[in-house]
Amino acid sequence: MSVKVGDTAPDFTLPSQNGTSVSLKDFRGKPVVLYFYPKDDTPGCTVESCAFRDRYEVFQSAGAEIIGISGDSPESHQKFAAKYQLPFTLLSDKGDKVRKLYGATTAFGLIPGRVTYVIDKNGVVQYVFDSMLNFKAHVEEALKGLGAS
């Protein structure tokens, strides 16, 4: 079952690229853009993550936090974030438990999908965008979902 607009975003706790545990509830009171992506340092995921980086100030102006989630290790996330100067949190979802909790799709039944959720300050999902191949659109769609485009 996938999380839809109007649903309360399921809480979770995962390790970050800094080795700290991060819970979604830690961000209650501010909007969160939660994006699931397939893998660190691959062409599409790099384009998507750098697009979020390049518009980071716009998200900050809207009061929103950005959180990226993939099945990569915290160490992989640390290298990826450092290599591309990603200023936001990346979380390690080993075994894809949170991905499955959200019902974030898989492409062709094999590759973890690319899905972005905009969650309001009360923890309610306001917008969902699912596109495996339109990497940069996730940023514009998230801004639209925040009302900040």
Automatic annotation (TrEMBL):
Organism: Chlorogloeopsis fritschii PCC 6912
GO molecular function, one term: thioredoxin peroxidase activity
Keyword Oxidoreductase (UniProt): yes
Biological process (GO), any one: cellular response to oxidative stress
Record has Membrane as a keyword: no
Record: active site: C45 (cysteine sulfenic acid (-soh) intermediate)
A Pfam family matched in the record: AhpC-TSA
Family stated for the protein in its record: Belongs to the peroxiredoxin family. BCP/PrxQ subfamily.
Keywords: Antioxidant, Disulfide bond, Oxidoreductase, Peroxidase, Redox-active center, Thylakoid, Transit peptide
Gene3D superfamilies: Glutaredoxin
Protein name in UniProt: thioredoxin-dependent peroxiredoxin
A GO CC term attached to the entry: cytoplasm
Subcellular location(s) per record: Thylakoid
Domain Thioredoxin: 3-149
EC number: 1.11.1.24
Its biological purpose: Thiol-specific peroxidase that catalyzes the reduction of hydrogen peroxide and organic hydroperoxides to water and alcohols, respectively. Plays a role in cell protection against oxidative stress by detoxifying peroxides and as sensor of hydrogen peroxide-mediated signaling events.
Catalytic activity: a hydroperoxide + [thioredoxin]-dithiol = an alcohol + [thioredoxin]-disulfide + H2O
